[in-house]
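hey so u asked for the seq, here:
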Amino acid sequence: MKKVLLSIVLLYTVFSAKAQNLTPTVDKRIELMALVFRLAGAEEYQPSYNYKSSYTDKIERKFAPFRGSEVVKYTQQLRNKYGIGFDAVILFALYTEITDGKVAFRNDVDIRNLDKRWPQDSLPKYMKLLNKFYKQTGFDAFFASNADLYAKAAESFKTKVMNEINLKWFDDFFGQKKADNFKVMISLSFCEGNYGPHIKDKSGNEEYYTIYGSCRTDSAGIPIYGQMGWLVAHELSHSYWNPAIKPYYQEVMPQAVEGVDWQRYFSDGALNPYVRHAMERIRTDYRERLSIEGLAETAGVSASYLSRKFKEATGQTFLEFLTRTRLQSAVAQLRSGKYRVYEVAEENGFGDYKNFCTVFKKYMKCSPRTFLQETGGRLPQEDE
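ran it, structure tokens below
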């Protein structure tokens, strides 16, 4: 009962005062990058089935002819090879500025700190093609023509959402002064996905962002925002929580991948010989495409028999055992800082980047990138 009352008090405190001086904006850089990735077919930047507004219709009519443009094709190549998407798109946008009709990287940030899904050697070419797209499509004029809509959407978000949030509470509760550095942005281009990126400039100044998509509109085409204060509070909290728990994350994170005690298994004289053979193949050939059916056929026994005996000996299915062995190696490679995520996927038998991320999150309860960030790991620099 005490926990319930405490939760109610905290929620009341968080939402009891207004978030004055924090006005949401629609950012031209984010709309531009969201558009490029939408044209490239990125699922997370497509409008959902229930969010097709006059604005998204306008985007389709205006920009559909440019699906074959150079930057869109290059985006598809980079996405397929390096898994660029979701927050990596937003971060790229925030590392840029648009002045005098030209897109360029900000002088006050170090692009070597950009999300490592973006290969450093791809950035000059990407920026050149992005500028070509920006000019050819008339994006600047398109964005300007929708200024009234953006202003109404921002006012709607501020009135319905931001005015519920007490920013001072976060600084007081966490004992850190960060609220003055928060920036809230909304996008009318996509629905799914909310992002909370953090940037540190060359002088050490920090910027904290919370970015939200739009999923519904009224009859006039103005986005409708429901009771989202809790979501804003959630994203804002990450700016405080993540740095605070980072030093202790290795102690508390799920230890889903434990080392296999091969010696214990192989020294067991009673171990089924077919299971022994299957385990030996996993130990030496986990990077290859292995299946219980293939191993059973080689051994001359049925797959159901081998599967049953394997589970009896290890307490795990063949696939679980194989996956954990692969993950054990993958985690070691990630922590080494010598491999990119897509390379780890290929090196350890997971096939493509997307499948690896799905499996990793299932067992480790976080994405590979989050794992690295929270355990103090790093991805390799381009020149390594």
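The longest strand covers residues 206-212. The radius of gyration is 25 Å.
lmk if thats what u needed
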